[in-house]
């Protein structure tokens, strides 16, 4: 199956590459690694809204063709294709972007946010602007148009026991991305970090190679992890948005009006991803449905504070030891903006 999938991706990519020279300058090939249903997936909801606004508001001078479900390769490969001009836009996870832009790791400060609205304020404000500018300066060949929602806060599932306190993590093998910061966080909680590719997570849980994993609630639901997990804890310990990037050479080839339209469309794309994420979380496709299939534990403020106290110093030490001074400056700004957003309440 893996060989077949790679073959199909290669065929699709060759087709795109072959038509690149022949396509008009207003065609945006948009690659992402999620399901292609705008009612089921925040990423595709984002691309669908973006595509509709761009095509309509430019009177068709710029059009969008979306390649979802890894049709053109992995998320990391999409970043390279974007930089090479093979595709013109992508949504990329922090994990996929990290090999090109290691400072993205500062977003993994654990137990940072108190609610979803605080995340919106931070990524739409001065920190989001600073992060986008640094990505653009570091890579040189991309423009950042926003930070869409991947599905919300991370929860932890496992097959061993309910987790409510730090001691409950002891000895549980939790799958992480290959990000060292994720491994640092899991180990600081007292669990065993087990890096594993996404395609192997379900079978790893099913066979007991790993005991648990961490992801946003909608992803846990769509991946059918409740079939192989008995317990879920609403830790809300991470929030990792997508980074919406477009090829700089292509973007700068557009007229001023077309560029303005793309920015407006990107803002609406971000809004759509957030709205659908919240709807899925509250529906039978999210937490409401999972509660009938898996034992759910919500943490108290005191329990979350204890976990934050255990993990944040380890995370900050990781950043200081493995990244540069600019990353430390970004982390400081991130902390400041998060604290301000957490202190705000609705309509303040």
Brief rundown of the structure:
This protein has 348 residues and is an alpha/beta fold. It has 14 helices and eleven strands. Helix 5 packs across helix 14.
Task: Provide a descriptive summary of the structure in words.
Helix 7 links the parallel strand 6 and strand 7. The chain has 348 residues and is an alpha/beta fold. Helices cover 49% and strands 14% of the residues. The termini are far apart. The protein is built from 14 helices and 11 strands. Residues 1-12 and 17-23 have low confidence and may be disordered. The chain has a 6-stranded mixed β-sheet. Strands 2-1-3-10-4 form a 5-stranded mixed β-sheet, with helices on both faces.
Provide keyphrases for this structure.
alpha/beta; 5-stranded mixed sheet; 6-stranded mixed sheet; 348 residues
Query: Globular, elongated, flat, extended or rod-shaped: what is the shape?
Result: globular
| Neighbour order of strands in the largest sheet | 7-6-8-5-9-11
| Unreliable parts | 1-12, 17-23
Termini gap: 53 Å
Radius of gyration: 20 Å
Instruction: Determine the number of helices (DSSP H or I, runs of at least 4 residues).
Output: 14
Mean pLDDT: 92
Characterize the quaternary organization of these chains. Answer: single chain
Q: Based on DSSP secondary structure assignment, what is the total number of beta strands?
A: 11
- Major sheet attributes: 6 strands, mixed
- Return the structural class: alpha/beta
How do the helices and strands follow one another from N- to C-terminus? HEHEHEHHHEEEHEHEHEEHHHEHH
The portion of residues forming beta strands comes to 5-15%
Question: Share of helix among residues?
Answer: 40-55%
């Amino acid at each position: 199956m893996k060989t077949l999938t790679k073959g199909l991706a290669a065929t699709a990519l060759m087709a795109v590459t072959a038509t690149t020279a022949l396509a008009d300058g207003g065609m945006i090939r948009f690659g992402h690694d999620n399901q292609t249903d705008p009612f089921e997936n925040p990423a595709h909801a984002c691309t669908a809204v973006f595509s509709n606004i761009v095509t309509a508001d430019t009177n068709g001078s710029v059009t969008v063709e979306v390649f979802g479900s890894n049709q053109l390769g992995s998320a990391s490969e999409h970043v390279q294709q974007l930089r090479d001009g093979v595709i013109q836009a992508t949504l990329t996870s922090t994990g996929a972007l990290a090999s090109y832009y290691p400072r993205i790791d500062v977003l993994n400060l654990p137990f940072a946010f108190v609610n979803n609205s605080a995340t919106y304020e931070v990524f739409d404000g001065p920190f989001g602007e600073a992060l986008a500018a640094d990505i653009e300066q570091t890579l040189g060949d991309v423009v950042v148009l926003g930070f869409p929602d991947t599905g919300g806060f991370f929860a932890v599932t496992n097959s061993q026991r309910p987790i409510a306190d730090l001691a409950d993590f002891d000895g549980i093998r939790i799958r992480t991305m290959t990000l060292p910061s994720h491994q640092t966080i899991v180990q600081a909680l007292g669990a065993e970090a087990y890096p594993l590719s996404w395609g192997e997570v379900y079978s790893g849980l099913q066979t007991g190679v790993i005991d648990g994993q961490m992801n946003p609630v909608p992803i846990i639901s769509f991946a059918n992890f409740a079939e192989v997990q008995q317990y879920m804890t609403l830790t809300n310990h991470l929030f990792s948005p997508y980074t919406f990037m477009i090829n700089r050479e292509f973007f700068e080839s557009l007229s001023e009006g077309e560029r303005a339209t793309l920015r407006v469309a990107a803002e609406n794309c971000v809004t759509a991803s957030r709205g659908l994420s919240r709807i899925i979380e509250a529906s039978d496709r999210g937490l409401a449905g999972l509660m009938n299939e898996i034992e759910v534990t919500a943490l108290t403020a005191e329990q979350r504070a204890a976990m934050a106290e255990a993990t944040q110093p380890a995370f900050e030490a990781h950043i200081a030891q493995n990244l540069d001074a600019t990353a430390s400056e970004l982390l400081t700004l991130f902390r400041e903006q998060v604290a301000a957003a957490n202190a705000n309440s609705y309509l303040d």
